[in-house]
Amino acid sequence: MKITKVDVYMLDAGEQRWQREPIICRIHTDEGIYGDGEAGIALGIGSTGAFGMVKDLAGLIIGMDPMNVEVIWNKMFKSSFWGMGGGAIVFAGISAIDIALWDIKGKVLGVPCYQLLGGKFRSKMRSYASQLQFGWCDRIGPYGKPEEYAEITQYALDQGYDAVKIDFTQIGPDATHLPKSECEGIPTRKFIDMVEARMKAVRDNCGWDFDMIVENHCRTDAISAVIIGELCDKYKAMALEEPTIPMNPMMHKAVHDKIKTPIASGERIFGRWHYMNNFMENNVQLLQPDVCNCGGLTEAKKICDMGQVFDVTVQAHCAGSPISTAAALHLEAAIPNFCIHEHHFRSTQPSLTVLCKYDYQPERGVYTVPELPGLGQEMSQFGMDTALMHVVVDRDERGL
After folding, report:
1. In the chain, at which residue ranges do the beta strands (DSSP E only) sit?
2. Where are the beta strands (DSSP E) in 120-181?
3. pLDDT tens digits for 141-181?
4. Counting C-beta atoms within 10 Å of the first and last residue's C-beta, which end of the chain has fewer, N or C?
5. Residue 144: CB atoms within 10 Å
6. Under a CB-based contact definition with an 8 Å cutoff, are residues 358 and 322 in contact?
7. pTM for this prediction
8. Do the strands 3-10 and 23-29 form a parallel or antiparallel pair, or are they unpaired?
């Protein structure tokens, strides 16, 4: 079997287009079997860079055997030159192609991807309702008032979730975006009172018998994160996510040394080499690799296995298209150190789910791993027909 061509798409997420332009590749073979994969630049800027990176990397694999997943991964990593330096765009491109290859391999062998990763520890994955500051399902935010945070939390709990995640720093009291500068350094009393009022409202109105992850999105630095971390201790948070910029792992340690709440991070770290320093110093307790940007299923499994050596538990970051959800579920089913699955607010929206063939959603806060061969997910015809960009790569133009 040989790879004959690669289609690269930038999909149109409709009303989410302002922040999400999913980059998907479809790898074709001479036996008619194809596989889909996603580059995990799921939000913010960088989608055009990821589109170009997948296109460039695709030229390296034309004519290769798609079953040789590790061989292809190492060729992309080393022959691209920049792969060995890491980075979001390069590793997102590698991830998209790698996931598509696993999809092909599963289809050829007639088994779900989790079987190829070693078999499943679990069929069902507990999940949490993520990013409630923006709303949940048909209750659209953003929210600014403390009582609104309690109301949207209760709305998710009433659907069967027993865990939620909220960024209490992202939205101001007037329900508009709060500048990052407000969250750094020694924060004002007004800022801290705003964060605490929201946490307190959630606990006072919704109770203490559910888990709450506090999301910071790297908006804080070590100084302000410690102050919020103390509130996390007070209000019994499950974890404090991305308290500082992850490029200096010592700052995660500085926060962890001063609070009891576990630190969650990893969605903006790429390749096993970049994760190692966080493990060595016990900087992260809840690891959040994104399968679509850390190096694909090949690399994500290695990262999770390495994390187990350091007693690190795992929740895959999942904020892209339904293809990213399927990839995360297969990984989480196949690792012993799984903690919980992230069900993102955006993943409940039709503008995203319509881009793929199947709409996998949790029931009463519990996800089931897909059982179809390969990923068990692929682009819909609608997603391909409405794509914002599309190129076909059918030869190696670089001769690498």
Report:
1. 3-10, 23-29, 34-39, 124-130, 135-136, 139-140, 163-166, 211-215, 239-241, 263-265, 286-287, 313-314, 341-344, 366-368, 389-393
2. 124-130, 135-136, 139-140, 163-166
3. 999 999 999 999 999 999 999 999 999 999 999 999 999 99
4. C
5. 17
6. yes
7. 0.96
8. antiparallel
